[in-house]
Amino acid sequence: MAPEDGGEQPVGDGGQQPVGDGGVSSEEGFSGAPDDEEMPLTAHIEEMIRRLGIVILVMAVVSGFTFFFADRLINFLWYSFLPGDPSACPDGQACPRVYHPLGLVFARLKVASLVGFIAALPVFVYQTYLFMRPGLYPHERRYYLASVPTSLVLALVGVAFAYFLILPLIFSYFLFYSEDVAEIAFGLTETFDLILLMMGLFAVIFQIPLFIMLAIMMGVTTRRWLEQRRIIFWAAFAGVAFLFSPDPTGMAPIMVALTMVGLFELTLLLLRWTGR
User: Taking each helix axis from N to C terminus, what angle separates 188-205 and 103-132, rounded to the nearest 10 degrees?
Assistant: First the structure.
């Protein structure tokens, strides 16, 4: 029977949801986040630019400091994957060759920028937290703050993953299909671009579990929603892998895509196991 005019209406889909794990209390649901306040669009843009400037400044400072030790890092990375001795360059060893007058300078800048980029990742996460903080509830702030050191740890794990597994496989593959038909000359710029690109890319790729966890804990999405659309995410991962990989043979992008899909699925499996 329908209620009389002026009677109390039943609560439907638009009613207040019960408080649960990560839910919103009735007070929060109606009043918004504790520090939320209206700001003009120009103020938001100015703050965003200022916080982005802080990230760029941190990256520049770390990169500038690293630049003075870049030669050591170049030799360390180069001879970690290619045969040779940095003190000598006899025939048969994969010594770097410079085909551009500024090739070595660019290589130093690139390796310094990679170190600065990794160091700036947690700063970026923290600055996005400060930018969004007024609109976050207390439990969301805790999640976001916990992600700052986690971001750095995941970036280092991604770099280590590329260093110990991906890059050795890629260079072994390149040497295998090339050494019997041609004498290989390793250009410093092209080869080092591949090394740095893979390391930087995997530092970003390993942020996937963090982004998924944050999105679910803050109520942006759900595990079921992600599972139902996993094919779309797989296709997007493959597109990103082939877009950013300089390897025309397809091996490097396939390894990148498989890593992204694996991280995505392992994160969903962990969430299912924990009941989130």
Answer: 20
Question: Could you tell me the sign of the dihedral formed by the alpha carbons of 74, 75, 81, 82, in that order?
Answer: positive
**How is 229-250 classified by DSSP, letter by letter?**
THHHHHHHHHHHHHHH---TTS
- Average pLDDT across the chain, whole number: 80
- Continuous H helices in the chain: 26-31, 41-67, 70-81, 103-132, 138-161, 167-178, 188-205, 208-217, 223-228, 230-244, 251-274
DSSP notation for 172-226: HHHHHHHTTTS----BHHHHHHHHHHHHHHHHHHTTHHHHHHHHHHTTS--HHHH
The count of C-alpha atoms lying within 13 angstroms of the C-alpha of 55, restricted to the half-sphere facing its C-beta, is: 20
Rounded Cα gap, residues 162 and 156, in angstroms: 10
Alpha-carbon radius of gyration of the chain: 25
Query: Residue 198 is which amino acid?
Result: M
Residue ranges in the chain modelled with pLDDT below 50: 1-30
Residue in the structure block whose two tokens are 């942006």: 220
Overall size of the chain counted in residues: 276
Q: Which two tokens stand for residue 184?
A: 């290989």
Give the number of other CB atoms < 10 A from CB of residue 227: 13
Q: Are 165 and 157 in contact (CB under 8 A)?
A: no
Residues 87-123 have pLDDT tens digits of 556 555 677 777 777 888 989 999 999 999 989 988 9
Q: Using CA atoms, how far apart are residues 108 and 70, in angstroms rounded to an integer?
A: 5
pTM, to two decimals: 0.73
Whole-number pLDDT of residue 31: 52
